[in-house]
Design goal:
This protein is 47% helix and 11% strand. The protein has 581 residues and is α/β, with parallel strands linked by helices. The relative contact order is 0.07.
Amino acid sequence: MTEDDSHSDDGEDADPPSEQRRHAGEEETTRTKSSGGTTSQPTTREGQSGEEDVPDFTETDSAATDADGVHSTGSDPTGDDSTGSGGGETETSARSPSRSADAADPPRALSDVALGGDDENSRGLFDDLLSGEPIFENKEVLRPSYTPHELPHRTDQINQMATILVSALRGETPSNILIYGKTGTGKTASAKFVSQELERTSQKYDVPCEVEYINCEVTDTQYRVLAQLANKFIDKNHAVIDDRLRSLETLAENAREDGSVLDETEFDAVGDVDARISELERDREEMETVPMTGWPTDRVYSTFFDAVDYNERVVVIMLDEIDKLVEKSGDDTLYNLSRMNSELDNSRISIMGISNDLKFTDFLDPRVKSSLGEEEIVFPPYDANQLRDILQHRADVAFKSHALSEHVIPLCAAFAAQEHGDARRALDLLRTAGELAERSQADGVAETHVRQAQDKIELDRVVEVVRTLPTQSKIVLFSIILLEKNGVHNINTGEVFNIYKRLCEEIDADILTQRRVTDLISELDMLGIVNAVVVSKGRYGRTKEISLSVPIDETEAVLLSDSRLGDIENAQPFVQARFDN
């Protein structure tokens, strides 16, 4: 930048000498900052009438070095060096003698500081991303956690649940329910919808009825389930006690002024009200919150029992992914919950279990199985036409009008119908396609975005499956990847086993037998990670020819993120093991 460039291009006469000195001082500042590592150029912002122009740096050094090598800190990010005290004023005065501390510039707007005002050169990281028209109206509608107000093609199952649970509104104990169905068939959404309707109706008729939801994939032990339930009811009891205490304290205060206010209450005197207040305060103090670890299970169960029985109510406990709880902790939790009603005085409990595994009850104690499965509801998979209706129902709320091309929803439905009628997969596909279209700043969602979303979701699924594999399966898969990367085709089990042994020796892992490695290859084949075909070699017998069904680079990266496999510094020489027999 030259001195002439520092002047504005508005066609006015040259600046007076004082202004020239000021500009020269600013030029020195610019050159100094550039030498200190700052590459930003100043721009002059035209101030209000009678005010001086203020140089605006789009980037400001937190510690700039002046021409004499003096290191100064605390520079004002607004570019106004005339404010502050001490060294800041001295430095500014030295650079621009014509400026004084009294001639402070007017404060700049926050938008000018944070976003660079209207200057096109100061556009931030997100400005370009925000410049396009949004495609989504409400993206949350497409997420699995969303419970819609209407569930197409699940009317029969919803009505069946409602006829079972309606007894709770009469103060009776509903039958226990087991809900079966594959992933994405609307089990949880339907159960939550019915539960919300149940609680809404109970409030309408002033009937004490509550539904508590537990995800057993996360809360997967008896201790955690009981602790979470106990704490929920303790919190509700605290709220009830607090409301009751406030009304009693008001009653006692009024009764001290006029004893007749007690005539229509259960209390004969103010002392009776005070005694009840003391009793409630004592109850509240005794309700101790259960820690997530550390207590004996019997104590947790007793705390939950006392908390749920403190008030009169009917409770429906919804256990989603109930098979995960049984798999991890056995059926003790279900046994205790299903037997509680015989001991409760004020409350009644009903269990609603939701499972993807139609056979998990085979592992239950016969007594638990008979009490838990009093009513069973099966959710069949959706077909392509039903998925299309579901997607259209959600898309009308989720997207802006005319944001979807005519082929988007049918294609999403067709892809999901291939995955056993998984509505969750269809919704994920539609949402991801919308996100990809929005990121590319397209006018709307097209068929190409759906196909890109399909590839992305498939890759994400593969990454998650590979990441959660056992260590031995990861070693077997890594052996196959090493062979394919080195151009080996028609890989057989013996070649995989030879490299597998070398890798196990390298990371000090147990070496399984070749038969067990063959079983692990079959498991990888079932997961869709490899393709293993049995071929006949004539008089040499039969063998499996193995090839990868997943992207090599992404899969290898996931495997190497494992701390044990990450210890292999150079796996290339192990490929030579295929020649060692």
